[in-house]
Amino acid sequence: MADKVICIIGTGPGIGLSAARKFGQKGYAVALVARNEEKLSHYADQLKEEGIEAIAVQGNVLANESIRKAVQHTYDTFGRIDAMLYNAFTFRNELPSEMDPIEFASDLQVDVIGALAAYKAVLPFLQEGSSILFTGGGLGVKPMKKFTSVSVGKAAIRALALAIHQELKGQNIYAGTLTINGFVKENTHFSPDHIAEKLVEMTEKQDQPEWTFDRK
Questions:
Q1: Which of 21, 30, 101, 138 is deepest in the core (most CB within 10 A)?
Q2: Are 64 and 117 in contact (CB under 8 A)?
Q3: Where are the beta strands (DSSP E) in 35-180?
């Protein structure tokens, strides 16, 4: 069994899967959490073929209790959790005047309220030296009108991460956000693999609460 365990909430084919792979290569067992269990099982099988211990855990970030159960299942399976990555977010192309308030509230549930639920769920299982990571975005610092929803969501996740860092600073538990100042795309500087490498580095150094991933 692996010496460390990471729970990745919001595992898709981009940053989530790349992070699972990079952490797995560092000796972590990985719990992949998302709504689509069939896709998750496929990702877990890929990782297992690469020699990485992985499980697929169905969890819906639109439902806080579902998040709690996914984290609990991770702990029940491995007996520990050493790191959590919250990587869930929504993305829609709408001006503020075009946005529906109910849909916006749903977006915020995914972008930041689910992150708070995940933090509260994982905190009882963390020991000294553990890490809590949040994927942020440059839109949270420099919003764009046509991407208002995710701009607000990333601003909120940044504030939440920094507040959690302040709360945990004296407990030797690291909390940090990676602000990605570009659009994630394969075979570019902003590739999921490059970003995942930075997330691993954050857990290793555990120095500052906000890291940025900029253009070269």
A1: 30
A2: yes
A3: 54-58, 83-86, 131-137, 174-180
CATH, domain range 4-213: 3.40.50.720
Residue-wise pLDDT for 74-88, tens only, equals: 999 999 999 999 999
**Tokens, residue 47:** 């990782």
- Which residues, other chains included, contact 49 with Cβ-Cβ below 8 Å and sequence gap of 6+? none
**Residue 45 Cα distances to 12, 14, 39, 76, angstroms:** 14, 16, 10, 20
Closest CA to 150 of 66, 11, 158, 64: 158
Q: What is the mean pLDDT of the chain?
A: 94
The DSSP call for residue 170 is G
pLDDT at 83: 98
Instruction: Give the pLDDT of residue 37.
Output: 87
Residue 7 phi, psi dihedral angles, 5° rounding: -105, 120
Name the helix (H) or strand (E) containing 210.
strand 210-213
pLDDT digit string, tens, across residues 97-128: 999 999 999 999 999 999 999 999 999 999 99
Taking residue 149's Cβ as centre, other Cβ atoms within 10 Å add up to: 23
Distance CA 213, CA 216 (A): 9
One DSSP character per residue, 45-85 reads HHHHHTT--EEEEE--TTSHHHHHHHHHHHHHHHS---EEE
Q: Domain-by-domain residue ranges, the chain? A: 4-213
What is the model's pLDDT at position 216?
Answer: 63
